[in-house]
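Researcher: Here's a chain I'd like modeled. Treat it as a single chain, no partners, no ligands.
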Amino acid sequence: MRSGASVHRRWPCASRQPAIGIRGGVAWLLLLIACGSPRPSKRSPEEPARTDSGAPSTTALTWTLEPSVRRPDDVWFARAVDLDLSAPATVDVHLESGSDAIDWSFEVEPGPTTLPLVGLLPDALFEGTLTATDGVTTLEVPLDIATEGLPEDYPLLEPLVHEPSQMSPGWTFMPFDGIAWGRYFAALDRQLRPRWLWIPPNPVTEGRVQDGIVWWIGGGAIQGHTLLGEPVAKYRHWGDGDAGTTLVEGVRSFHHEAYPLVDGFLTLSTTLREVESFPTRDLSSARPATLLSSTVVDLDLDGQVRRQVDLADVLDTSRVSWSSFEQVEREEGEVLDWSHANAVVPTPDGAWLVSLRHQDALVKLDPTGDVHWILGTPEGWRTPWSELLLEPEGEIEWPFHPHAPELLDDGGILLFDNHNYGTTPYSPPVGMPPRQRSRLVIYDIDETRGTVSQRWSLEELTDSEVFAFALGDADALPNGNILGVWGWVQSEQGVAYEDMGRGIRGARIVEVDPSDDTLVLDLRMTSADYDTHRVGWSAYRAQRLESLHPALTQWSEPAP
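Model: Modeled as a single isolated chain. C-alpha cells:
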C-alpha cells in the first residue's frame, strides 16, 4: 500500500456486552479496545444533533452516552471507544497520524457499546473524527489519541533480511518471554512495527490467535483473552472455581499446547508412571524409576474430557533419548521427563500428530489412540514398535527433539527440527556433537507403503547455521512461504550471546520461500539493554494473521 492509503474496516458491533464464556468469546472481542483519559465531544450534551444540512434532527438518533476513549489495562497501541446510541447506526472512525490513515466502520445497535480500535502506531498523535449516521441524521465528534511509546524492556529487533513486498501479507503475532524482564504478546506489521502489545497476567508457555481470541497456557490454565486483554474463558485443573473459570477433572496439568477445535481443544497433560526397568544413561543396566509421562487430552467447551491417551500406555517406556534422563521437580519428588510431548494437531481422518521431544520422534495416533506410525530414527525401538517405524526412501535426515508439526494441504508434514544432539544413547559417541544446527523440514509420508521421504529442509540462515536449544515453530503461509522460529538461541557462529552482549538467549524469526530458499525475513530478537547475565528473550511460536479484527468484510495492509 502506498503511504497515506487507508485501512478500511467494517465490523458488525453488538449493542450490549455478551456473557463472558467460550461461546461468547468471539463476540466479546468485537466489543473492546482503548487509551488515555476520556475526551468529551465538542458539542455540549444539551445541543441537539444536526443533520448534514444543519437542521435539527427529527429522527430518534441521539447520543444516550457520548463517545469517550480509554486505554485497556496492560495493552499498548489499542483504544476502546465507549458510547451509546438511541437507534441502529453506522459508526465510522477516521484517524490520521502523519502519512498513516486508518478507518474503521462498525454497525452498531442501540445500547452501551464498545468499539475496538486495534493496530495503532507507537508514540504517535492521531487526530480524526467519529461519525454516526442512520442515513438521515449524522452525529460527529472529534477524536484525538496520543499513543504510548515502546516499553522500556521491549526487546531489540534486528532485521538481518527484510523484504516486505515478498512477505506473506498480514500481521506477525507471537508471544515472547524475558528472563529478568517482562513477557508480551505482540503483533508486528510487515514493516516490523509493533501495532499491538499485551502483558498477560501469567508467564506464557504457548499462545495463538483463533477467531480474534488469544488462547494461551499460563498460570496452570488454558486461558482465552480478547486483544483488549479481556478474559473470555479459563480452564484449569485446580482452584476454587473463581469467576470465569471452568475446573477440569481428570487431568493433572496443561502444558505446551492449546489447539482450538470447533467444539473444544486438543491439549497436553501429564501423568506419573512407576516402571520397574528404566535404563541408565550408559544403557549398561536398568532400575526402577518414576516417569513423567505426557498425555493427549481432547477437551470440550464445557471442560469435559472426551478422550485422553497416556503415551506410556502406547509407547515403550524403556526407550530413551539423551534428554529422557532429565529430572523434573514435582510434589511427589524428582521424576524423569521421559517423553516430553510438546505439540498435538488433528488430522482430517480423526487422528492426532504428536511431537515427542524426548523421544526424537513424531507419532501418529489413530482415532482409537493406538500408534499408527512413528517418524524418527529407528535406534532403540523394540518390537512391536519397530514395526510401526516409517521406512526411509532416498536421502533423509531424522528429526531430533522436534517441535510444531503442521499437516500441509498436499499431505506433507512441516516440522521444526531443533536437532539437539543429532544422536541417541544407542549410537555413540556420547554427548553433544561439535556441529549443532536447527532447521525447518518437510517430510512426505506414504501411509499405504509405510514410507517417508524428505522433500525439503532449510538449515542455514543469513549468516550461518543457527542452533535453537529449545522451542521452535514452523507454519505454512498462504503465499507458499514458510514462517519459522528458532525460539531459544544461545549462540551464533560459535560465539555465545552473552559474550556478544545480547543476553543469555535470543530468537530468530524467519520467513523463507521454499522454492529457492530465499529468505525474505530474518529477524533477530535479543536484549536491547544488556546489563546483567540474566537478561534475554525467547519466542516459542509465531503466527501470521490476516487481520487483527476477525470480523472484517474488507482488509488491506497497513501503510508502510
